[in-house]
Design goal:
InterPro entries: cNMP-bd_dom, cNMP-bd_dom_sf, RmlC-like_jellyroll. The protein is of the alpha+beta class. It has eight helices and eight strands. The termini are far apart. 24% of the residues are buried.
Length: 195
Amino acid sequence: MSDSTSILIAYFNRHIPLNNEEEAAVRALFKERRIRKRHYLLQEGDICINNSFVVEGCFRMFMVDKNGKEHNLQFSIENWWISDLYSLFKREPSRLYIEALENSIVLYTTIDELLQLFEDFPTFSHIFRILTQNALVSHQHRILQYVSSTAEERYRDLAEKRPELFNRVSNVQIASYLGVTPEFLSIIRKKIAKS
């Protein structure tokens, strides 16, 4: 357990250095969970009660539309957070799934525990404000890209910004994330390989 929390403490320290009391709070608060490949952290209809930090492994967050088609919204690997923020903060049933794509380890805490941590240690409130701002910028970039870029441009951007995903996530999952069919993704990849 100490190895996992040490990873999380190092992550926090990259944003704002923690003092000994804050490090002790992290060790006391966050709990470890191991999730096997193809198992879920969250399923549609559940209320998301945990905010999870990925220590090891890879997850996808996706929704299933009324026709049964899956749409990948996010991939999270080591040193990323994953949860349905809407369900977490609104305490309403989720419309999303969070699935492990590999055998994985997360550290998690409930939203109530996290909010208490913010009260007890303002440093964490500041860190999570930075994380939230970064996430909002990233999501805004993705939305703008989705409405104003070609599929090839979206693929190139993903390959440049998150190349590690291509060794860990199937082409079918990448295609879903980019909003194209696997066949069209194959055409894009062949075109790029020729140029």
